[in-house]
Amino acid sequence: MSKEVRDLIKTHLPDYSSSRFGNLYTDTSEFMNIDFSDVIQLGNEHFLVSKNEMERRFGLDDPKYWVKRCKRLEDKQPQILKLAFYEKFPMNIGPFKIECFRSPRKEARILELVKGDMRFMQGYSADDSAGNNVRVLDIIRGKRLDVWVHNIPVDHKTYFHEHFPDIFEKYIGACEAIKFLHDNDEKHGDIRRDHLWVEYDTGDYRWIDFDYAFELYENPFGLDVFGLGSILIYLVGKANITAQTMKDHNIDPGMLSSITPGDYSVVIGNRVVNLRKIYDYIPPSLNNILMHFSSSSSVFYESVDELMLDMNKSLKEIRNL
């Protein structure tokens, strides 16, 4: 197949400098075998693979072999191809037991639903020759929101008073985008802080990665709501605060004696949710929202509407500080 790939690349990319010409794939089932300089064909379009995308979490870089950074030969546009990958796993949050799984066609549905809505990543889907659903995604030129916030070079008090109100307002807008999905009976499925990006040119907040789905019979959209709460906790604290990282954030370790088991997150048990105990200038109205996501809470938000109602009230109070 190398000659076929060589001819394709020379036709569309005459300045291609690599001496390696890979294989042509019309069936992406064995995505682990598809690598640099291979070409993926979807219908009449051809995508030259440059690398696997990486999962960057907890300080580690793990290759995502089913997600390829590519260049579409026909127009030389960089794209991301998400190939069909299936997995299933359980998750426990407080009293809830949740079954999570990947669904390429669910992500394809959402891409069609949000076409032209720049609160979300953009793209389209196509089936390969074996019927695998492949999502062809536009690349967002931007940075993860959590990295953006982390890099603001000020102490927490300055951040909270001078930067957080605008971030909070835009985050409420991002929650409104998730409400749009729920209103259309769709779930994001994997809401976490590395799936919300800030676009460089516009400053807009944009959601990515919709291929997870979940089953939570007590509340069909509950996992999305918990995810929104976890991001909010990060934004309020300008970090995820744990007993081990207090010193890193210039927090008096002696303050740890005032933190009780009920002050930690119901989602990730080592993260402090009751941030007002650490930063006493956080308004009670905002801290009360955070405490809905604590292990001591007996009342959880059932919808994005409920969460947004409280956030908008708190934003108004913060603007008047």
From TrEMBL:
InterPro entries: Kinase-like_dom_sf. It comes from the Bacteria. This is Protein kinase domain-containing protein. It comes from Maridesulfovibrio salexigens (strain ATCC 14822 / DSM 2638 / NCIMB 8403 / VKM B-1763) (Desulfovibrio salexigens).
